[in-house]
C-alpha cells in the first residue's frame, strides 16, 4: 500500500468487482430476436429502447424503485419503447418476454474482472477492513455475491434491498462506516458510478476512488472530481 493507506476500503460491486458487460450488446440481441415479429427494423426498436432506458434511469426516484425490481423496470422500458413506435397498449405477455430475455442476457454476461478476486484476496490479507456496498435488490445482489464466492473477502456487506437505503445517500455510507468502526478520513470508497459512489462518498468525507475498468475516461460534465482514478483493483495495492 502507498503511504497514508486507509484503515478501511468500501467497494462497489457491479462494474467495480464484477464486469456487467456492455448492455448495448444485450439490447441489440433482444431487438434482433423480437423486431421481425413486430414488423419493425431492429435499429428502430433499439433506438426506441435506448430513449426509454435513458428516460427511466434519468429520474432519481424512478431509478431508486427500479433497481430494487429490475424486471419491473425493464417491463416499463419496453412498454414505453413500443408505445413510442405506435404500438398502443403493447401486449403485456410480449413485454414480459422481452424483459425476461434481456434480463437473462445481462445475467449471463456478468463475471469478475480479470485480477479482481486476486486483488481482493491481497487486500484482505493486508489487514485493511473491507466492506461491500451495493445498490439493488436483496435477491439479485446476494445471488451474485454467493455465486462468485465474494462474501469471504468482506468484514461488512451492505445491500440496499436489505437495509432500505442506498448510495448516494449519506446514510448508506455512514452505516457502512459504523459497521467497520472506521472514520471517514481513514476510509476509501472505490466505485464506477460518479454520482452514487464518488460524490456520495465525498459528501461524508470519504476519499473517493473512481474505477474506470474499460478506459472510457472521466466525464467532467457533472463537475464530479474523484480523489484518484484507477483502471483496476490491482492499483489499490
Give a quick set of tags describing it.
237 residues, alpha/beta, six-stranded parallel β-sheet, two-stranded antiparallel sheet, 10 helices, 8 strands, 13% strand
* Order of helical and strand elements: EEHHHHHEHEHEHHEHEE
* Count of individual beta strands: 8
The largest pleated sheet is described as: 6 strands, parallel
Quaternary form? single chain
Helix share bin: 40-55%
Secondary structure layout plus pairing:
Blueprint: E1 8-11, E2 18-19, H1 23-38, H2 42-57, H3 60-68, H4 70-84, H5 92-109, E3 111-112, H6 116-125, E4 129-134, H7 138-147, E5 156-159, H8 160-163, H9 170-180, E6 187-191, H10 194-203, E7 207-211, E8 228-230
Parallel strand pairs: 1-4, 1-6, 4-5, 6-7, 7-8
Antiparallel strand pairs: 2-3
Helix pairs in contact: 1-2, 1-5, 2-4, 3-4, 4-5
Would you give an account of this structure?
With 237 residues, the protein is an alpha/beta fold. It has helices at residues 23-38, 42-57, 60-68, 70-84, 92-109, 116-125, 138-147, 160-163, 170-180, 194-203; strands at residues 8-11, 18-19, 111-112, 129-134, 156-159, 187-191, 207-211, 228-230. The strands form two sheets. Strands 5-4-1-6-7-8 form a six-stranded parallel β-sheet, sandwiched between helices. A two-stranded antiparallel ribbon has the order 2-3. It is elongated. The model has no long low-confidence stretch (mean pLDDT 95).
